[in-house]
Amino acid sequence: MNYFLFNLIFFKMKKVFKCLIFAVLFAATSVSVSADARFGARLGLPISSVKVSEKNSSSSSSGSKVGFQVGILGELPIGESFSFQPEFLFTQGGGTLKDKGGSGDYKWEEKNTFATGELQIPLNFKYTHSLGSVKIFGLAGLYGSYIVSAEGKSEYTYDGETEKETTDLLKKDGKGNRQVDQLEIGLNVAAGVELQNGLFIEAGYKHGFTNLATKDYDEENVIKKSAFSIGVGFFF
Fold first, then answer.
1. Left, alpha or beta for 30 (phi > 0: left; psi -120 to 50: alpha)?
2. Which pLDDT tens digit goes with each residue over 69-100?
3. Whole-angstrom Cα distance, residue 194 to residue 235?
4. Alpha-carbon gap, residue 212 to 184, rounded angstroms
5. Are 68 and 24 in contact (CB under 8 A)?
6. What is this structure's pTM?
7. Sign for the pseudo-dihedral over CA of 51, 52, 55, 57
8. Which fold has domain 42-235?
9. 10 Å Cβ neighbour count for 226?
10. SS3 helix, strand, coil % of the chain, rounded to 5?
11. How many distinct helices (H) and strands (E) make up the chain?
């Protein structure tokens, strides 16, 4: 009984802790704006993948999935070369896992695609250095994502016949459990070039720390996302 209560309390504290982190990320974007603050918009092309690991066993990484990203951002100076850059984005992620086996006339092939739509808040500290008419910059920080859609598509081919299935991974089962955790926390790094007119080009990488496989639904696997991205934007 004590063991059950301990696990229940630990699980609840973990959920509350995640919610508090996400609330802090939102609150941090409401800091006071100085007269030198800038605001802008951006478009991006994230190339994401998923890593699935069995606990105490092997792991496999998915193939890349190209998505779309759009959002707004601000730049709040905190020194001559440093600034704080919060963003609010809608971004797509996911990946594709493939497997095959068999021999002769008895070959099989399996393909599983994981696709998400997310509201994401990166909170970055940025360093900028001027080189004549252009600026180069690098930034790093944390991001929080809230997954608003998650779809799984599976294709299984055996003996020339293919079966397909699509699953809403956020839909609750009979016990009220989802397959995918909606909250993700991760690390974000990027670098780029900005022109005098405010146009910038940026390349970045995001790595999620959070296990997206919910404990109540899947206790065996650990699922984490990562993504490379390239984007363009403009400061007004």
1. alpha
2. 999 999 999 888 999 999 999 999 888 887 77
3. 9
4. 7
5. no
6. 0.78
7. negative
8. Porin (2.40.160)
9. 18
10. 10, 65, 25
11. 1, 11
